[in-house]
Amino acid sequence: MRGGSSWVGVVWRGLGKKTSHSSYSSPPKYPSVLPDAWIPSTKHHRLQSSGIFPSGHTAAIIDGKSIARDIRFRIAGEIRRAKAATGKSPGLAVVLVGKRRDSKTCINIKLRACDEIGIATLIAELPENCTETELLDVVSGLNEDPSVHGIIVQLPLPQHLDEEKIMTVVSPEKDVDGFHPLNMGNLAMRGREPLFIPCASKGCIELLLRLGVEIVGKKSVVIGRSKIVGLPTSFLLQVISTFLLIQSIFVSGCVIYCWSAEAPRNGQHRTCIHQKPGTDNFSS
């Protein structure tokens, strides 16, 4: 590591020169004014019928890949214009602890997308046995790095590391995963706007709105309560004013709750969770 850093064992790849930071005790600076709320696109994409559920309801396949291509194309244009105006490209830093294959796969997908649209990337790789202090120092350094505009700490972390503590240290202004308590809290409270929204939940709502699905005033069911998908999705649906039921994946009879839900719906199409006969598996 260049610059006499105390981050022993950290491997940096990407954005270039890093500086040394030895403390994580200073809290991140909060912005005085939160930005405008995220407003998803309402461009419609076609639903493809894939069969008939019981009671005559039609299953539909949502072509998320084409929607993702549209979004990447739009963002690439925005980045080109911003770079032409400022001479700078947005920078994303990804912190990886250990060598989990699934984590590396997720990171590679993110890096390919960044490369496609013009976002500069940096990877900070730490050994699985790194200390919490070492990891916090890395995150603190990225908070202070002006070339880094977004930070992702790839989850899950090894068991000896406190995920909640780590995510709290990430600056909310760079918390692109939306897991910082400030961002999650603002998402949960009506009338407040988070700096970032968890991408999986944001993607769910984006898909529904692009398909022209009417959500407002409908009954919705969210299966699962994870902080990565379930809870933030429920917060978004509540902001959109739906009657919401959060259902545990371990509760029997959740298919009944899903069939009683009114949203999401598009014409005769109903997006729901269907239990395959004789199995515990669910498909949409």
Give structural notes.
The chain has 284 residues and is an alpha/beta fold. Among the domains are: 86-174, Rossmann fold; 197-283, 3-Layer(aba) Sandwich (Rossmann fold), CATH 3.40.50.720. Helix content is 34%, strand content 18%. It has eight helices and twelve strands. The strands form five sheets. It has a four-stranded mixed β-sheet with strand order 1-5-4-6, sandwiched between helices. Strands 2-3 form a two-stranded antiparallel ribbon. α6 (199-210) crosses α7. The longest helix is centred in the first third of the chain and has 23 residues, at 64-86. The protein is globular, with a radius of gyration of 21 Å.
Topology:
Blueprint: E1 11-13, E2 47-52, E3 58-62, H1 64-86, E4 91-97, H2 101-117, E5 120-126, H3 132-144, E6 150-153, H4 163-169, H5 181-188, H6 199-210, E7 219-223, H7 230-239, E8 243-247, H8 254-260, E9 265-266, E10 269-270, E11 274-275, E12 282-283
Parallel strand pairs: 4-5, 4-6, 7-8
Antiparallel strand pairs: 1-5, 2-3, 9-10, 11-12
Can you tag this structure with a few keywords?
four-stranded mixed sheet, alpha/beta, disordered N terminus, 8 helices, 284 residues, two-stranded antiparallel sheet, Rossmann fold
- The H-level CATH homologous superfamily of the domain at 86-174, spelled out, is Leucine Dehydrogenase, chain A, domain 1
**Spatial strand order of the main sheet:** 1-5-4-6
> So what's the overall shape?
globular
Main β sheet profile? 4 strands, mixed
Given as residue ranges, the uncertain stretches (5+ residues, pLDDT < 50) are: 1-8, 16-54, 264-284
Residue-averaged pLDDT: 75
Number of DSSP-assigned strands? 12
- For this structure, the CATH topology of the domain at 86-174 is Rossmann fold
- Count, helices: 8
- Gap from first CA to last CA: 47 Å
Would you tell me the structural class of the helices and strands? alpha/beta
CATH class of the domain at 86-174: Alpha Beta
Q: Classify the beta-strand content into a percent band.
A: 15-25%
CATH architectural category of the domain at 86-174: 3-Layer(aba) Sandwich
Helicity level, as a percent range?
25-40%
Radius of gyration: 21 Å
Order of helices and strands: EEEHEHEHEHHHEHEHEEEE
Domain Tetrahydrofolate dehydrogenase/cyclohydrolase catalytic: 62-177
GO molecular function: methenyltetrahydrofolate cyclohydrolase activity; methylenetetrahydrofolate dehydrogenase (NADP+) activity
Domain Tetrahydrofolate dehydrogenase/cyclohydrolase NAD(P)-binding: 198-238
Transmembrane segments: 235-260
